Amino acid sequence: xxxxxxxxxxxxxxxxxxxxxxxxxxxxxxxxxxxxxxxxxxxxxxxxxxxxxxxxxxxxxxxxxxxxxxxxxxxxxxxxxxxxxxxxxxxxxxxxxxxxxxxxxxxxxxxxxxxxxxxxxxxxxxxxxxxxxxxxxxxxxxxxxxxxxxxxxxxxxxxxxxxxxxxxxxxxxxxxxxxxxxxxxxxxxxxxxxxxxxxxxxxxxxxxxxxxxxxxxxxxxxxxxxxxxxxxxxxxxxxxxxxxxxxxxxxxxxxxxxxxxxxxxxxxxxxxxxxxxxxxxxxxxxxxxxxxxxxxxxxxxxxxxxxxxxxxxxxxxxxxxxxxxxxxxxxxxxxxxxxxxxxxxxxxxxxxxxxxxxxxxxxxxxxxxxxxxxxxxxxxxxxxxxxxxxxxxxxxxxxxxxxxxxxxxxxxxxxxxxxxxxxxxxxxxxxxxxxxxxxxxxxxxxxxxxxxxxxxxxxx
Length: 460
Fold this sequence. Notes:
Blueprint lengths: L4 H5 L5 H33 L4 H51 L1 H5 L3 H43 L1 H16 L5 H27 L1 H6 L3 H53 L5 H14 L1 H8 L1 H19 L20 E8 L9 E8 L15 H8 L7 E6 L2 E2 L5 H7 L14 H5 L8 H10 L3 H5 L4
Antiparallel strand pairs: 1-2, 1-3, 3-4
């Protein structure tokens, strides 16, 4: 059972609501103990031969406590889910703000399917983590101590046995947690790969149909789905083993406590009614652990989904905006590139080396060249998706770094080409026209498309 500190930081502002939800859960657990204690007492009175009239009040109180406990359980569940909905809304807003802050340059370097998976499905899984797993983890940690105090009042030795068993059932699965977390992360990665390739297929559907490559894409998605299936089965298997550890600790603890209690009754050190009360309470003592066991899988899935969220929050913007920038209306419509050198982050290939040109008001300029020569890079630099390594770019006589990003993008309109490149190698994209094309055929196609020289300059 893991408590993730960084996920806990997302609860800032609603921790009072979480604490209140845990408090309601503890009250519900206490009512459960009282309910079973009353049932044990009631059974003891029946065995001792008390009349129906003497049993009316115990029956009434027992029924009242059962009803009250049900109401508290419903209250706890509704409070927890409302709290998790608040966290979900807040987290999604922070994620979108971060993506906007990172800019289009960051989004362009990520696979669309993986990004969508994190923003949609990942946040939904975290709602389950905050709404079910986290409150239940806190309740399962605190409840055994409170129940121990009640059972210790009846019989201290049996209470110690039950307390030890309760904490073993809570902590023992942590020994398996490292392997369980590894499998959950593998499943999340397989899910992200499947989602990304699936979205690629949808976005490039027209291209696939045009080149008759639907079958090859189906085969790829089939491969990804099998990987996702296998990783999911591994998660379920490791989760089942963790649940088995919890169940074993509960069963052994309950048997040991009740067995020792039976010997104490035979020795005259405990009353039969007391043993019956403890017997009935044995269900409630371990109920928080069983409840935690049922949401353990959701907790592990939530923790693995959080890795995608961390990735976005850990990312640094490719360009930084000065806080002292002032808005200057009516910029002169002129563009100047002065000795601009540029290469993309994490790539050694130089796209532009001392690029110089000027565009004055009213001029129409076309930039032509082979694929990969840097035509699109000029637009990206002008929109300040990236900053040049050297040199400067001015708009209306002002350095782009001294103009707000909002103003830059309000001053410029862009109409993109309607093209789509599948995630993978250039060779794989060229082979869309013919899967069995030889290396020579691929080279000839690259030459005909005027991209061969550019491709040969790229790293393998």
